[in-house]
Specification:
alpha+beta; Alpha-Beta Plaits; 8-stranded antiparallel β-barrel; globular
């Protein structure tokens, strides 16, 4: 298991700038990051838009999120993160930061991977899953007010033993990864969603990796959640978790999806 991950949730408030922003990521930002010795992999996804059936849910701070980015880091972790942050700062000084008006980073934070899951049909291990081509990911970001409290613990156990195994049986879902926050990144344009007193692990991310159509998979998830609830497979400790963002995203196809 790789020891650390990074997530960025971005809202692009100027709709005329998507092509410019995506080109910067494709040609500059992501290649520079992937070239760092300690960066194992990086992906970026666009939130689905349009159909209310697959729009997902979000609290006000995340209602307009357009993109989610994710990087995975290798050891030596301290040096890797230092290199990653330095590159971000240096790129601004080079005049090669995003430089795109209307970019609001709703959250940028480092996370510790908790556990990976892969459906047997895909053959690869959970550790390989992020490197496997996929059509998109279904992203859920949650906050736990007491991340090491008894109710949170029971909610984590329910996810591990009930809900994620159920989700893996949905056609088009290849696997999942869960993450717990380690520290948030303070930078201009980032909205602070964690208070200073928040403990590590207050934020959790779940990624469902998909090889089916993200919209169709999301519709199936919603249908099955009703069936599972009626069958008594819901959680008795859901109050421990505040879902901040839960929505499908699609893999961005270079030169096509701009």
């Amino acid at each position: 298991m790789l020891p650390r991950a990074f997530f960025s949730f971005v809202d692009l408030t100027d709709d005329t700038r998507h092509a410019e922003y995506n080109a910067w990521h494709l040609y500059d930002h992501r290649p520079e990051n992937l070239a760092l010795p300690g960066v194992a992999w990086g992906d970026r996804w666009a939130r689905l838009t349009g159909d209310a059936d697959h729009a997902g849910t979000a609290v006000e701070e995340f209602a307009s999120v357009d993109y989610v980015a994710n990087y995975w880091f290798r050891e030596p972790l301290e040096q890797t993160i230092a290199d990653f942050l330095k590159l971000g700062a240096d790129s601004v000084q080079w005049g090669r930061g995003p430089g795109v008006p209307g970019v609001v980073r709703r959250l940028t934070a480092f996370f510790t991977p908790v556990k990976g899951y892969a459906h047997p049909r895909v053959l690869v291990s959970p550790d390989v899953l992020p490197f496997r081509p996929h059509t998109g990911v279904h992203v859920t970001l949650s906050r736990f007010a007491e991340p090491v409290g008894p109710d949170a613990h029971l909610q984590y156990r329910w996810y591990d033993r009930v809900r994620i195994p159920d989700l893996l049986e949905i056609p088009g879902v290849t696997g999942a990864w869960t993450f717990a926050s380690s520290e948030t990144q303070s930078r201009p344009g980032t909205v602070a969603l964690t208070a200073p007193e928040d403990a590590p692990g207050s934020l959790r991310v779940r990624l469902l990796y998909l090889d089916g159509d993200p919209a169709e998979v999301t519709r199936e998830i919603r249908l099955r959640e009703k069936v599972w609830a009626d069958a008594g497979r819901g959680s008795e400790h859901a109050a421990a978790e505040e879902v901040l963002f839960s929505a499908p995203t699609r893999t961005i196809v270079p030169y096509q999806d701009w």
